[in-house]
Amino acid sequence: MNPTYDFTGQVALVTGASSGMGLATARAFAASGAAVAMADIDEAAVDAAAKDLTDAGHRALALVCDVTDEDQVAAAVDRTVETFGRLDMAYNNAGIQIPPADAADEGAEMFDRVNAVNLRGVWASMKYELRHMRAQGSGAIVNCSSLGGLVGIPGRASYHAAKHGVIGLTSSAALEYAPRGIRVNAVCPGTIDTPMVGDMIAKGELDRAEAEANQPVNRLGTADEIAQAVLWLCSSGASFVIGVALPVDGGYVAR
Q1: Residue ranges per domain, the chain?
Q2: What DSSP assignment string belongs to 17-58?
Q3: 100: number of Cβ within 10 Å
Q4: Which alpha helices (H) appear in the chain, and where do they start and end?
Q5: Closest C-alpha to 188, from 115, 251, 113, 238
Q6: Which class in CATH covers the domain with range 11-250?
Q7: Is 159 a catalytic residue?
Q8: Which is a Pfam family this sequence falls into (predicted)?
Q9: Most exposed residue of 55, 114, 147, 171, measured as fewest CB within 10 angstroms of its CB?
Q10: pLDDT digits (tens, 9 = 90+) for 41-67
């Protein structure tokens, strides 16, 4: 049974909100009473996801946003505050995966692409969220890193570089903003059963059986399990939790 939270009167922003972990987290925030701004590059998908929530009686806002474009990120955060009046919580989840490559052969365009989304996108999102939270004197931000932010895996150097970078952003911002009433943490998912992981499996870039065996719990995680970790980090139950990179990985990094 999942814990329950009461975020009534609060506002959450989720990037990469049209599917997978982002969608699960947006739904969980809404179910807990929060108004939710859902940002995603896929306009049709995020519109449909937000409509599902509003049709169910929740307050939701669809935002088309490419997190590699700082102006779009700033506009999405501003629109959230203009619509709902404040910003209390954010889950900076938008991310991509790239094919595995030998570190000596990978093209610069792949390195630039994965860092533009997975690192710079988190940086930009956090930057503009902090500006509003700083004015309020309160807030909680969760950045999406990965088990790839905690360990290395052959063939994944560029992806892991970006996810390690997210943890550096998180810890430094956490120290800077803790005295101002804002908590910043990161979540580090293991291999989660999402459309992105399903696509990797379909393309032969990931072996499902091997991925399951690499997690001591012997299965893939679910998007809802990540959502629950994010909600806890944003809740008063985690009020003394600052600057952590929380593994939610079925025991992968504990081996």
Answers
A1: 11-250
A2: TTSHHHHHHHHHHHHTT-EEEEEES-HHHHHHHHHHHHHTT-
A3: 16
A4: 20-31, 43-55, 70-84, 108-115, 121-136, 157-177, 195-202, 208-214, 223-234
A5: 251
A6: alpha beta
A7: yes
A8: adh_short_C2
A9: 55
A10: 999 999 999 999 999 999 999 999 999
